[in-house]
Amino acid sequence: YDEQGWYIWAIHAGRKWLENSIILTTLNKFPWDTDQIQAFIGPCISWKNYELGYEEIKNFQASFSEYIKQPERWVWKYYLDIRSIAYKQLLYSWIEKDNISISSECTYENTEKYHSYRRHTHNAEYPYGNNAFGIWFNN
């Protein structure tokens, strides 16, 4: 959002959307002074719970290799840190570092508070529920 309260943007930036630079693309759509923008990276899956195969991870290797983690003994396992990739894309968009807040909550681990399609799939449960986001104004 901007400090004057004229604009609020909500971006769902999962792996596929981050791969296609959804944050940069969205922020480039609107004219504003980036030092006035406040950004929040909300709860998301943590890297240690976001295991992917090589085909899913390969598109990130050129630009975001430092956010791909691979245990030495498991050469076929890759873990992706999407929270850090979103942060880096905000910095690429010229959002001031001090204007970015980041939640440390993991949607996979916090079973009481968050739905996680990946968690339900791993536990062979029906992937019920949905996440919702609301924006309201208080004038």
What does this molecule look like?
By secondary structure, the protein is α+β, with helices and mostly antiparallel strands. The chain is built from six helices and five strands. The chain has helices spanning 15-19, 22-27, 54-57, 61-64, 82-92, 117-122, and strands at residues 39-41, 51-52, 68-69, 78-80, 100-102. The strands form two sheets. A three-stranded antiparallel sheet has the order 2-4-3. Strands 1-5 form a two-stranded parallel ribbon. It is globular and about 45 Å long. The mean pLDDT is 82.
SSE layout and pairings?
Layout: H1 15-19, H2 22-27, E1 39-41, E2 51-52, H3 54-57, H4 61-64, E3 68-69, E4 78-80, H5 82-92, E5 100-102, H6 117-122
Parallel strand pairs: 1-5
Antiparallel strand pairs: 2-4, 3-4
In short:
The chain has 139 residues and is α+β, with helices and mostly antiparallel strands. It contains 6 helices and 5 strands.
Question: What are the main properties of this structure?
Answer:
single chain, alpha+beta, two-stranded parallel ribbon, 6 helices, 5 strands, 26% helix
H and E string: HHEEHHEEHEH
Apparent shape: globular
Helix share, percent: 25-40%
Whole-number average pLDDT? 82
The number of helical elements comes to: 6
* Helix/strand class: alpha+beta
The biggest beta sheet reads:
3 strands, antiparallel
Q: Numbering strands along the chain, what is their spatial order in the largest sheet? A: 2-4-3
| Rg (CA only) | 16 Å
In terms of DSSP E residues, the strand content is 5-15%
Task: Please mark out the parts with pLDDT under 50 across 5 or more consecutive residues, or reply none.
Answer: none
Number of strands: 5
Distance between the termini: 16 Å
